[in-house]
Amino acid sequence: MNQQVKSGKVLSPVTPWTERAVPGIDVADEQQSLKAIYTEPTIECPECHALVTRTAMSFNVYVCPQCDEHLRMKARERLNWFFDQVNSELGQEFVAKDPLNFVDSRAYPARIKEAQQKTGETEALVVMQGQLKGLSMVACAFEFDFMAGSMGTVVGDRFVQAGEKAIALKQPLVCFASSGGARMQEGMLSLMQMARTAAVVERVKAAGLPYIVVLTHPVYGGVTASLAMIGDVHIAEPKAMIGFAGKRVIEQTVREKLEEPFQRAEFLLDHGVIDQIVHRHALRDTVYRIVSKLMNLP
Ligand SMILES: [Zn+2]
Fold first, then answer.
1. Alpha carbon of 62 to those of 43, 86, 171, 283: distances in Å?
2. What does the pLDDT look like over 25-40, one tens digit per residue?
3. What's the rounded Cα separation, in Å, for the pair 207 and 240?
4. From ligand 1's centre to the CA of 114, what distance in Å?
5. pLDDT tens readout for residues 285-297
6. How close is the Cα of 250 to the center of ligand 1, in Å?
7. Is there a domain that residue 67 lies in?
8. pTM for this structure?
9. 175 annotated ligand binder
10. Is residue 70 part of a domain?
11. Residues in domain CoA carboxyltransferase N-terminal (predicted)?
12. pLDDT at residue 28, as a whole number
């Protein structure tokens, strides 16, 4: 099945498999132990294809322990990890509507319902207010698994509320961006969110508060063209793909082959689009340090 688990290399960093008590399993019985190993949910690293247990991955904040690949994190999980203490969640009163009665191969409400069931979220943006190392701030994260983290009216509403809350509380705003762009099922209303979110960011800045953007794989389209590129500081996770149009579309337009690492965070850092690339393990410390500096805190 997989070499790593058999050879005992990919194990939970906390308790080795062989020492973990599994209910109803006699660890001395080899057949039974192997069955227990095989039934533990594992995540396959898309880069090195190592099978790592879900527990081990979550302890390592979804960074592959074998090759350091940064796997995608769920929005809620990310914010709960980012904050030491969450005080409240914002914007839950906004729920998706179907203003255009849009139907493509399927009706838009059916797509929303499916995304809600798949992710357990009501929309593609999660906003929380809490504390990072004693520093209060408002942070939001895109849920990419919810219709590719696309920005519809509810995402706009929630982001605007996050900005307004930051202004009201005089706290910095942090955004973990990960999106395929605007939500085509909402047409023009979706595109309007670019202007709305950019406007609220301007108000946050006018209030003298920092707005930090963390670009996580991948960020494209209308989100790149608005809230994700107007931060005071742009941090990206290693190897994150960031762009407006996708690589294939650009290749077809300019009729040139675009080689790796085109649109990767490393490429954008070389070309001055982003400020720094930070390993996920150092992200909380980095955001804390930048915010403290920008807010003139000791
Ligand atoms: Zn890996």
1. 9, 21, 28, 13
2. 565 677 766 666 667 7
3. 31
4. 30
5. 999 999 999 998 8
6. 29
7. no
8. 0.85
9. no
10. no
11. 41-298
12. 67
